[in-house]
Amino acid sequence: MLVLDTSAQQNWQQAAKVESSAALRQKALIDELQSNSISVGDDAGRDTGSLLAQMGRPLASQEVQRRLHLCNPKLIFERSAAYPELTGVYIEKDERLPTGGWQKRKVHLLGMESGIMPEFSVLHKTTKQVANPELFGKEKPQRDIDWVNVPTFASETRGWRTVLVRLLHLGLIVQMDVEKYFDWTPSQQSEKWYNMTR
Question: In terms of C-beta density within 10 A (0-12 exposed, 13-18 middle, 19 or more buried), how is residue 76 classed?
């Protein structure tokens, strides 16, 4: 006859829960570390956090809007009332009403700077404390965990090439128009532009 050993089963289940919890914690820490590191990576050797390194050929926001309007006259630009340093880019789409009719609705696509725009986006960095990656997977009481500071993304000054990439990916502008009105080739080597536009 088979007899259940409930205390042994309970111990086994408890150990499995602890092990699963530790594995999930470790995975979350590794994911967070990778996320923080990737977001502030350099661009073809240039520091993406340096305004001077990312400036390239700066353009006034009004000039970017004028050229984008030549690429697609349906684009709408509205300066934010709450954040006047930012301008929203919109497009009108037809939306079906429950009554069966149609109505135009303005859809937000992305935001851009309202003043002078650098050619490439500038990523403003901050630091964040995460558990020391060298301790991942090691048995150690939580109170003894070492913390390290890693650079991470804080905010962005959006460059006009980033705006072009977003609109290209949305299919709202085409490469031929970008070549005509903006010049397809960046003023300096940009691995990110190359990867996002090929």
Answer: middle
Number of domains in the chain: 1
| 90: nearest Cα among 110, 104, 112 | 110
Position 82 in a domain:
no
Domain that holds residue 163: 8-72+119-197
Whole-model pTM?
0.70
Q: What is the pLDDT of residue 156?
A: 84
Residue 91 lies in a domain: no
Q: How far apart are CA 198 and CA 194, in angstroms?
A: 6
Residue 11 CB coordination number (10 Å): 11
Contact 160, 191 (CB under 8 A): no
Q: Are 74 and 92 in contact (CB under 8 A)?
A: yes
20: buried, middle or exposed (CB in 10 Å: 19+, 13-18, 0-12)? exposed
Q: Which segments of the chain have a pLDDT < 70?
A: 1-5, 22, 25-26, 28-41, 131-145
* Alpha helices, H only, 51-111: 51-55, 61-71
